[in-house]
Amino acid sequence: MERKIRVIVAKPGLDGHDRGAKVIARALRDAGMEVIYTGLRQTPEQIVQAALQEDADVVAMSILSGAHNHLFPRVVELLKEKGAEDILVFGGGVIPEEDIPFLKSKGIAEVFGPGTPTSATVEFIKAHVKRG
Known about the structure:
By secondary structure, the protein is of the alpha/beta class. It has helices spanning about 20-30, 45-55, 70-80, 100-105, 120-130; strands at about 5-10, 35, 60-65, 90-95, 110.
């Protein structure tokens, strides 16, 4: 039996609002993925540690605080330092359209804004996770 796709859902930085992260976590779980929600106010180091400990295939980050241009790339950088660049990393939340090219240039696979159907996130993960 093939292992379920394992996803870390994280809230980096000082952002204290997690409704969107919980909605995504439930949608991914309902789609048959194993989801580990790390909780609020996680540092990039804590997120990467959780991803490594849980043998995650995906790190999904949600942010509303405006610190995405620093925190998201830092997670990718730390994963590379640990030899885990094969983990798919994407983000969501209130992120200005003009910041998305920068984030993608730093290794963020995709950015999902408010109102994105959860099915789009599920399909993105299924299409991009490297298995086996």
